[in-house]
Amino acid sequence: MSLLNFLCLCTFCTCLAAWDPPIIMIPGQGSIMGKEISRSRVQKIIGYYGIPYAQPPVEKLRFSAPDTDNLVSWEGVRNITDYMPACLQTEKDIREEAKPFLDFFYPSYNDITMDEDCLYLNVFVPYGNRPSGLATIVWIHPGNFTTGSPSMWNPHTLVYRHRIIVVTIAWRLNIMGFFTTGDGEAPGNYGLMDQQAAMMWVKKNIKLFGGNEDNITLMGYGTGGVSVGLHMINPKSREYFHKAIIMSANFLNPSVVKYPKEDERLLETFLKSGCTKKPTSILIECLKNVDAKELVKETSHINWRPLIDVSLSNSTLPFLTELPKAHFERGDFHKVPFLTGYTDMEDILAYSSQIDDMAVNNVSNDNLQQILTDIVNSDIPVINGSESACVYNYDHITDSVMFFYGPSSGRDFKDINCLRQIMANFTTERSYASPTFLHARYVSKEQPTFVYRFDRKPITSWVVENIPEWVSVPHLYDLIYVWGMPYWQEFDDKVWEARDKRMSDIIMSLWTSFAKTSDPTNASSYAIAWESFKEESPQMMIMDGSFNMTNSRKVNYKAFEFWNEYYPKVLQIATQCCNTTEDGSVSIQASCGLLIILILLHYLHII
After folding, report:
1. Does domain 348-603 have CATH number 3.40.50.1820?
2. Positive or negative: CA dihedral 126, 130, 136, 140
3. What distance in Å separates the CA atoms of residue 144 and residue 94, rounded to the nearest whole number?
4. Is 32-242+254-309's fold the same as 348-603's?
5. CA 268 to chain centre
């Protein structure tokens, strides 16, 4: 053999050795092999799929906190080449307003594999020599606490283009994640505890994958963002992350959590399963033997969400002891660099059909008042018991909202575009913009805080063909840019507008720069001046392609004051007007109305 051939053969052997699938030894569990994920010959990352971070939550572990004391272990090399099944869910739980995005983004949802044994995470790292000290993003998916899966989110573009580690996790949803008996038998919040267990695993082991265990960003969207907010106030969770990204989440609204008593009537549902309500120890024992898929199916109509679980159990620490806002008011939260924001038409798709129907008929103040009344009534506490003497002042509540959002006194409007804009402003400012602004105000007192409003509607026509033309950026559609979807292999048969690719490049650069350095511009490839949000200068970035900071012409700061300061007072007073006699009812009603007027005058700086 010639020397040249010998050298070539040695080089070839070296190349083969360098391309061997990487294997990582996880202490206490076992060895796991990575899978090469290729976008092209050179665009490669490594994925470690299906790593168990807790014992399977089945049989006796159903409706229990995740068991992390004895992690799943194995002999030999674990070689999982795809995602493990998603946690149990049903298509009926997908909100109507989310379906246009899901149809475009993940049309194969009907084919998703699901199982009760679902507590797994996935780690995606850059390809090549083992990295070290990389920033890590832990993603908590959206889905109204009832749907969603790690398999929906392709991390390739973020990892390959920005050399960052991305971890996606599965956690229990719906009844499997949030059911409570109102006592220690089933204290609830298992889904949040699952997230926390996954975060603990990442903190402990990410260094094995080349990550920096002291540079972990928790990122979530929608109810995933609500989850991030809850981890900011949970004492144990605070140990496991160092930055927070919360997108399009109404975290500080009281309605995002509930009290256990709200689930008392739910117990009647389980009589159909052959289980008895009392004692709850027998109920839980019975429910642990009911088919899990049937349980999820039978309770798909329930509005599952996190619980204030203080005093429910002596065996596990409560996850949430009070309303989240109370923690922030007294400064009791994880003080970390913070990036947050919302889109300019968050919930509009929930009302777009109703608005367009009005265009066919008559657009008037009455139309507007009726739809706003229906929405704000959901803020009003339920009066318990048919014999209650409490009379709520619904009119005062609606009048306050109409005063702020309706036309000037004595005027009417006939323009459907005007109604559309009012509804877009109302739904976004009420549920997303105002709580986001308030959350940023609290955190900015302690840590660098960056706020945005996403105004850039995708230009690629087939992406937005399922939403009305007049709608700008509804809930979820900014994720197209955050996750680099224009570069996803799933869309290779589609043509993307170059401007959408450019926008995605910028957003990914800003988000990953924040994860790396606590500043979205420090490590970004783009010269964008994103000023930090401060209480005395509450600026936010308007992401419309121009990337300019806000001013009073683009953002209605008065709306934030209305929802965060004035409206809660109106709601409190209007729902405390109780009467014991007919005469007393009239006098108390009048007093409440006068008090609301005084608050309004003070709010307008008239007195």
Report:
1. yes
2. positive
3. 8
4. yes
5. 30
* 60: Cα within 13 Å, side-chain hemisphere: 1
Cβ neighbours of residue 447 closer than 8 Å, sequence gap 6 or more: 335, 336, 337, 338
Q: Characterize the bridge pairing of strands 541-543 and 449-454.
A: parallel
Instruction: List beta partners, residue 451.
Output: 340
Helix, strand, coil shares, percent, the chain, to 5: 45, 15, 45
Fill in the amino acid letter for 362: N
Q: For residue 507, give the nearest of 533, 541, 459, 472 by alpha carbon.
A: 541
The CATH T-level fold of domain 32-242+254-309 is: Rossmann fold (3.40.50)
Give 36-77 pLDDT, tens digit per residue.
Answer: 999 877 899 999 999 999 999 999 999 999 999 999 999 999
- The domain segmentation of the chain, as residue ranges, is 32-242+254-309, 348-603
Q: What is the DSSP string of 519-530?
A: STTTT-SS----
pLDDT at 370: 81
In what side-by-side order are the strands of the sheet with 23-26? 23-26, 30-33, 77-78
Q: Are 236 and 318 in contact (CB under 8 A)?
A: no
